[in-house]
Amino acid sequence: MQIAVNLIRDAVRNRRLQFWKRTQRDAVDLDEASEWVRDRAPSPEDRAAARQQVASIWNVVARLSERQRTVFLLHFMEGMNPGEIEAITGITRAAVKVHLFRAIHAVRERLGRTQ
Amino acid sequence: MNPHLTSEEISDWIIGERTPESEGHIAECALCRGEVDRLDCAFRQFRDSARRWSEHWYTAPAVRRPEAVWSWRRLAAIGGLVSAALAIVLLAQPSAAPVAEEEAFLQIPYVAPLAPYAQTRVMRMDVSMTALKAAGFEVHAPELSGALTVDVLVGQDGRAHAIRPINRSTKR
């Protein structure tokens, strides 16, 4: 509970949780969320692959625990480093790194390792 | 000795915690460089698309959802926001008629934010000033005995996550 309190208090102040604040108006379709990949890829196949990658990450995110998801989104959406996440959530820096490691590991498994 | 970066080292690299050893290895190992580049690219696309998508939702007109049926069990689940004081106010006062103009939802300070994929519903109700204050909002009113008509954004967990004031005038 204290985590949520710290998170919201600080986040509202420094406006770094715009992503979440923007997603409160309605339910969100995961497939729709992955459709917003920028059309930079040179071919339709590449764009489809990019959308597939993004959808895979969303699927991993959906399966994370609430705490892991919070840490994941604060890092990959809000660009916070582990120290900043610790300051906002109260989760220790070491635990933040463990959560990120597990999430990244899950993403790698989902995308298929190359090494 | 592992000829390639471990999963932990790759994770550290992705989150920006790079050591001279890992930088040296990435500079020399095409396989590890390819892996971190691939992951960097995937997470960059994820962030980019999610921000564009959330920007779309942020700027798109709010879609009014059907009013939910009053449920005291639901109210109980909302917890701190819907207090006993609110129940008294609700019994004494009928809900105000909806107004056409809508404002942005305000995050309830003491509730964790909704996940991006969470299902939500909107419930319109009268909330006492004291309940709003108890929920963590700054309430600037000469007296706290009034109530506000608000849309309450309720998550699939049954908890209220945000409110949207409908009528800022206090009701007595």
Element order of chain B: H for helix, E for strand: HHHHHEEHEE
> Poorly predicted ranges of chain A (pLDDT <50, ≥5 residues)?
1-9, 11-17, 21-28
Query: What's the mean pLDDT score of chain A?
Result: 73
How helical, in percent, are the residues of chain B?
40-55%
**Major beta sheet, strand line-up of chain B:** 1-4-3-2
Task: Throw out a few tags for this protein.
heterodimer, A: mainly alpha, disordered N terminus, B: about 170 residues, alpha+beta, four-stranded antiparallel beta sheet
Would you write up a description of this structure?
The complex is a heterodimer of chains A (115) and B (172). Chain A is 70% helix and 0% strand. With 115 residues, chain A is an all-alpha fold. Chain A has a domain at 50-110: Arc Repressor Mutant, subunit A. In chain A, helix 4 (44-63) crosses helix 7 (93-111). The termini of chain A are far apart. By secondary structure, chain B is an alpha+beta fold. Chain B has six helices and four strands. Chain B has helices at 7-14, 20-28, 30-59, 72-78, 84-92, 129-134; strands at residues 106-107, 120-128, 147-155, 160-171. Chain B has a four-stranded antiparallel sheet. The termini of chain B are far apart. The model of chain B has no long low-confidence stretch (mean pLDDT 73). Chains A and B meet through helix 1, helix 2, helix 3, helix 4 and helix 5 of A and helix 1 and helix 3 of B.
